């Protein structure tokens, strides 16, 4: 936790990464706020803020008196969000640049195929 971005965002993204890579499957219990705070050596309020971002997004849910759990469908929602972000940040600018260079869809597909096969 040390890349200049707010720590609570890094906590949320770390949990998202674990959900995406399958190390924290749907319906799995998430570490408690105190466990997250202790592990990352941060204030529990900061850990709570990161977890609450995921609760608000429907990625995690609370079971009163038991803890936080990964929601059903969380991984697919995260993948959809990440793909949309990828399209916005990378594909749209690529398409605009390719149009500006007079490239066809096939030209771009061929270039991408070559890169993916490397």
From TrEMBL:
InterPro entries: Tscrpt_reg_HTH_GntR, WH-like_DNA-bd_sf, WH_DNA-bd_sf
Domain HTH gntR-type residues, every copy: 5-73
Gene3D superfamilies hit by this protein: Winged helix-like DNA-binding domain superfamily/Winged helix DNA-binding domain
Domain of life according to the entry: Bacteria
Keywords: DNA-binding, Transcription, Transcription regulation
PANTHER family: GNTR-FAMILY TRANSCRIPTIONAL REGULATOR, HTH-TYPE TRANSCRIPTIONAL REPRESSOR YTRA
Name of the featured protein: GntR family transcriptional regulator
Organism: Demequina muriae
């Amino acid at each position: 936790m040390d890349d200049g971005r707010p720590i609570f965002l890094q906590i949320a993204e770390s949990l998202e990464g674990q959900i995406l890579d399958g190390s924290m499957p749907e319906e799995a219990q998430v570490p408690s706020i105190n466990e997250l705070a202790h592990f990352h050596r941060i204030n529990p309020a900061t850990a709570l803020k990161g977890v609450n971002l995921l609760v608000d997004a429907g990625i995690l849910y609370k079971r009163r008196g038991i803890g936080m759990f990964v929601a059903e469908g969380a991984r697919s929602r995260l993948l959809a969000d990440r793909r949309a972000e990828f399209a916005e940040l990378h594909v749209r600018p690529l398409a605009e640049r390719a149009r500006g260079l007079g490239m066809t869809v096939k030209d771009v597909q061929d270039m991408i195929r070559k890169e993916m096969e490397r």
